[in-house]
Specification:
Kinesin-like protein, ATP-binding, ATP binding, alpha+beta, P-loop_NTPase, nucleotide-binding, eight-stranded mixed beta sheet
Length: about 450
Amino acid sequence: MNSERCTCSLLNPNDYSAPAKVFTFDGVYGENSTTEQIYNEIAYPLIESVMDGYNSTIFAYGQTGCGKSFSMQGVQEPDCQRGIIPRAFEHIFEAISLADDFKYLVLASYLEIYNEDIRDLLGTNTKKKLDLKENPDIGVYVSDLSYHAVHNVAECQKLMEQGWRNRAIGATLMNADSSRSHSIFTISVEMMPVSQSLVDYCPIRRGKLNLVDLAGSERQTKTGATGDRLKEATKINLSLSALGNVISALVDGKAKHIPYRDSKLTRLLQDSLGGNTKTLMVACLSPADNNYDETLSTLRYANRAKNICNQPHINEDPKDTMLREYQEEIQKLRKMLETTESYQQPNENQIPVTRIEEDNSIRLLEDQKFREYEREMQKLKKQYEDEYLSKCQMETDFQNLKKQYEAEVSKLNQQNESNAVSRATRDKPVLNDDFNDQVSWTLNEH
């Protein structure tokens, strides 16, 4: 493990003469690293983005016993080895305590996918199977999943421990308390400005943090699984294979279909993989020589995943987004108009008074058109807020209004240029009759 170059080199224990397989990542941490270091360097920016209204996902991947749960949960002592999840709780509520201009609503949920069945770990009936549904506005969601309001770190930790006790675990040859399911702990942070001066610039936003602890991936013969454990392992490997297929399809630019529906895990993580989310994968490795195949598979898995390019954006009401864009467009047009006026400003020592008066009248007309344009914009804004018109209709009206404004300004500019040409023609010297006669006589003589 080379932390400075962010490379991981893997040697084949059965053939030391073979060249090492080298993989490069955004960060590499050896056995002497601490979870505090990992959080500060790679997880901190994602949690900070949640407070700005973005979606973020952090999930750990690897075989059983390689440190996935330790990386996510950690231990209480020493303090430097507390996991990513409790540090994320502290980060969120510390940021909330320092923000005086906003009000926050924080909701938490905890679910697991066991044998391809979704269960609510914080519900009254943890054995009840929940259904996946899809909505055009909010995307894929779990029906009847419980959400709990939390106000501090202690309440989040209590919910985490409650859900952890309800998770499906089992003993295998590789781990005495092996996670037999995938779990997703979600924190939703909704923020609203309390200062009226911030309402137009910072509307209501909603950030979401998904903390995913995947089940271990390994060969069945190594776990010694039989009966229910074998059935669990089969479902786990199928869902992880589906996740790998989704990653491969996203990386392959020629793929026409992304198989999100092959597994409930990939359906739930659809937005995290190739969607509107900042996503971090923590690939945990085993240094043991008898785990060479699993370690190589994990490295290849993570190496494909790092090539996915998501396009995250702030989560806010679409109407607020459009209104903010329109306000920015108005400011841009105002600056363009001011620049045009300064560029066309005449020199008083060289231009007649009539030219200054005409330019002033042109500018007054332009200002009048611009004020009319602003009034129409305010009228449209009020109309859209009252009637909730569709996005397409709003964009069409705005573009038509913008074209009308540009046409009026262009017409005024053309009129200004026409007046300048007329003045130039009017001021051109005219030859008198005596001069014309003299020129005529000279030409006849020659």
